[in-house]
Amino acid sequence: MRPPVESADPAKETRYLDIANSEDMAGVILAPSSVDGEISHLTDSGRPVVAVDRRTGLDIDAVMIDNRRLGAEVTARLQARGYHRIACIAGPSDLEATEGRALGWRDVVGPGDAARLLVHADYRVAGGALAMTELLARGERPDAVMTTNNLMGVGAVQVLAAHGLLAEIGVAVIGELPYPPAIARIVTQVRLPARHLGNTAASLLLDRINGDDQPPRTVELRGEVLEVDAGHVSSDVIDSSLSRM
């Protein structure tokens, strides 16, 4: 059994899969991008394959996060805190995870707000910052924002802090932020089940290696939404916390 194969670069992923296919291995765990044809070379050879966090369209086991449900739950938490114009900074539109989270957000805010308050970015800090800047520049700015990963959340927090708005505009991040407790108190965060994801994928693969021949299974896991402190955190405390980062 080889280590997991994961790459956002389809050409690089194809090379990895070619190597995996040429070696005498028991099975493969991978987070695929868009190379179903290459993956089928592995499955055609009889090797068990388990996909992690992305669907492949192939008859193989998969371990997923229930992204749509997660996006809806996080957005509902912001609504419960009194926010009404909740924007979404989503990653690239061709990635299943980010689209699922954005769909969950849309389920809660409705199609009208979704058309005005959705911005796609590149899953990086700079992308989150640019998207947050764009949202603030719009005629009627949002009173809260959800980002579909933690790096874009960092960018959004940086921009809001620079404008003195972090204590005013609600923030929810799917993922965890590397910020001090003062920031964590006012940002809704999600602890993703990364370890559980890997352990479950390994368990499924070992079952297949040991002869399990039941139909392919898809296991969906849930993230843990971390509660925020409802109390007020002053701008001075926020600025002091950010300056120590």
From TrEMBL:
PANTHER family: HTH-TYPE TRANSCRIPTIONAL REGULATOR GALS, LACI-RELATED TRANSCRIPTIONAL REPRESSOR. The keyword NADP does not apply. This is Substrate-binding domain-containing protein. The keyword Transcription regulation applies. Keywords: DNA-binding, Transcription, Transcription regulation. The lineage of its organism: Bacteria, Bacillati, Actinomycetota, Actinomycetes, Micrococcales. It comes from the Bacteria. GO terms for molecular function: DNA-binding transcription factor activity; transcription cis-regulatory region binding. Pfam families: Peripla_BP_1. Residues 13-219 form the Periplasmic binding protein/LacI sugar binding domain.
